[in-house]
Design brief:
single chain; alpha+beta; four-stranded mixed sheet; 1 helix; 4 strands; globular
């Protein structure tokens, strides 16, 4: 189950496909991913991405930020 949220950015089919592809690659390291929530945001001169993955009742959180 994958949820993608965009804050001040439109989630295009290309962005959705890219996120699905990257999360699919995690499957070989993390068995039984039950859900994933991706948040994409644009704030002034920064682009942010956050992800929360739930695996066997444990949550793994990651974040990245880049200047535009």
């Amino acid at each position: 189950h994958l949820t993608i949220t965009g804050r001040n950015v439109d989630v295009t089919p290309a962005l959705r496909e890219y996120a699905e592809e990257k999360i699919g690659k995690l499957d070989k390291y993390l068995n039984k991913i039950s859900s994933a929530h991706v948040i994409l945001a644009v704030e002034k001169h920064r682009q942010k991405a956050e992800i929360t993955i739930t695996v066997r009742n444990h949550s793994i959180v990651g974040a990245a930020e880049a200047a535009t």
